[in-house]
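Go through this chain.

——
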Amino acid sequence: MVNGKVYSWEDVTINVQGLEDIAVTEISYDFEQEAELIYRSGGAPCGYGTGNKKNTVKLVMGREDYNRVLAWCKKRGKKLSRLPLEKITVSYANEDQDTVTDVLSKVILNKHSFSAKQGDKETTVSLDGFACRGGKLNGVSF
């Protein structure tokens, strides 16, 4: 794209199924497929082998929104150490680009980190975990 609008934070919509009223201030996710070269005699690679797939998911929100997550867990009798979310949908859309939608399935957020320091305008909580069923990036499975 030349001289057009690229995706920016205001173009990102994050929907956490079951927690639609929380405001996520940051999301990151990555996917990886283990792969390495296989060698035979002569020291030259003859091919490659693949191993496990892995992924990570991270959400960041203000403490007030995290309190809503706590209330949601308490109401449903869910363990916070294995916060289960069926689906997180991340859509990127603006007037110059097609809408792109990524779906992360069966997300478990099993690490919760808290941060507050002098000078902060807001305290935040980071929720880290993984997508048990992986994800589809604009409809394409990883």
